[in-house]
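Case study 2.
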Amino acid sequence: MGQLFLVYFEGAEFSSALEEMIRDYHVGGLIFYSIAGNIQTLPQVAQLIAAAQAQALVPLWIAIDQEGGPVVRLTEGVTVFPSAMAVAAAGSLTKAEAMTRAVGTELRSLGFNLNFAPVVDVNSNPHNPIIGIRAFGSDPKQVTDYGLALWRGYRQAGILCTPKHFPGHGDTDIDSHLGLPRVDRPLEALQTTELRPFQALIQAGAEAVMTAHVVMPALGSVRPATLAPEVVSGWLRQRLGFQGLVLTDSLTMGAIARTYGIPEAAELAFRAGADVLLFGADPGFTPAIQKEAYAHLLREFRAGRLSVEQLDQSVERILALKRRYRLGSPCPPFPPSTLESHQALARQIAQDSITLVRGSLPPLAPDPLLITPVPLLGELLQKACPAAQVFSIPLDPTPEQQRIAQEGAQRAAQVLVGSLETWRHPAQRLLLGSLPPEKVIGLALGSPYDAFALPQIPVYLACYGTTPVSLQALLQVLLGQIRAQGRLPVGSHLEGSWSR
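Prediction:
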């Protein structure tokens, strides 16, 4: 039964608590988090993975969230690629596939064999607080095409990936880490939008899918998809014909933890048809909750209330994939020159992604004023343009900070304003909208929807995230070193829907 459990642990060394999970509970896998102290250096990570695998009777899934953009756990000594939306804006499926081949190669060299990516949610809601630039955009075909490209890259690298979050998290306005989202779209809309990328990936041969903690009544359930047999067994297995591995999103996320008990949720997820129960390092829980869930399921099996036949089917799927991906085999190293080529690819994708959303970009003034909530952008600008002035603001600047920024803008010849999710930060939007528009160049540092939120700013660039390569590429465009050639991956029809 332990093969159903993919668990998190605390610390950077192989501890007695981790040994117990592997030796006594025979867990199926481990997930690594920086916030749990698992990641310090690459050699430490590789040694920890090797020690864990050496103790396992059945080789372990060694999993991580390494999507690129805002969701990465490894940041030093590896290639950190731009966000999914930046990849789509760059416009090359070939480079997208090469990207995940690179990510997979680097992960495998450390001992990882499972990456919780790619995100194939269609971000049709501009106010989505958790998907946004993690998605390839708002067009189902575009999301499908890029999802397939990334899946192919992971497969070539020998990494199992998990297209997520089935049946779709792109139209939500609640972060499922914090609460339970609900999507009330009609069935036809779900089939043509949310379900379309998953259907294509299943038909192409995807071997694993991660579920979403999202309620979709049109699919026949009042429970979140992760816990709904109507969604997992009904839609995913029967209607879409998926025969691969079904993994839950973390059962300790707020959408589940605040609505159901964790052990009870583990039971419901298994009953719904999940093969792998994921427990993440979410706030408010310790690894002890995983033991409680294990004990709960064991009691239910022994009492005959859970199906042993279903358990056998899940374990067979797990073991078959572990054999196919040769878990436990030696990790293939890669030379430094390979890392250099990966980093060059990341820079190229970032450069290709920078999008001029509207207007005509003027030359950069010798002494521009930058108002930004992202300090790294200010550091990069001052290195390239020592006469530049930088005023750092929080996401919600105080009235005094707004006054200082407005006075600085009145004196400056040119004002660069970095925006970051302004629809969630009204004080930031108020400040940026109050600046003299004839002087201003808007810089959407996250979601490009900021450009729609501030129509009074005549020139707007988008870089789709604050990953260093994306900020460096944005600066290159401002300096006139490269041209903004990205394509906006979200529909302009959403321009009027930004404000709330």
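The CA atoms of residues 251 and 257 lie 7 Å apart.
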